[in-house]
Structures are given as C-alpha cells and as structure tokens.
Amino acid sequence: MQIGLVFALAWAVLALVGGATLVIRRNWLAETIAAERQSRPGRAAARTPSRLLFMVIGLVFIAMGLFIIGWWVTTSL
Question: pTM for the complete prediction?
C-alpha cells in the first residue's frame, strides 16, 4: 500500500470521527463556549458560535471522509 493512500485513509477516519463528534456534541460545545465567554467580564457580550455552525462543520468533515473512502474504493477496483 502506498504511503499517500495510508495517509488519505487515516485522514478519512479522523474526519469521520471528528465530524461525528461535532454533530453529536454540538449543544455541549456551544454551551461550554458561551459559559466560558460569559465568565470573563470583558467578554460577556461576545457572540458565541451557534449549534448550527458545529453541525455544518461536522457534516462537511463527514462528507470529506466519505469522499476519501469512496475515492479509495473506486481506485482499488
């Protein structure tokens, strides 16, 4: 197996796991960031990232991982 292919497959797995984590834990991430920003007096009015942002980024990572795995399957046929 070529080293580039191994790297691509490892990146695909990381993208799938990271994307799934972002989608699943989006509420917790948004609440944690909001609490952290509100705990500092100078940043109390700072905007927090929305839950939708984490879901969109997570879905992009999942799509990237699936694309890499699909590319690997089609090249190996």
Answer: 0.80
Number of helices and strands (H, E) in the chain?
3, 0
Do 75 and 15 meet the contact criterion of CB atoms below 8 Å apart? no
DSSP 31-77: HHHHHHHHHSGGGTT-----HHHHHHHHHHHHHHHHHHHHHHHHHH-
DSSP state of 42: G
Reading the chain (77 residues) residue by residue, the pLDDT tens digits are: 688 888 889 999 999 999 999 999 999 998 888 888 877 776 656 677 888 999 999 999 999 999 999 988 888 88
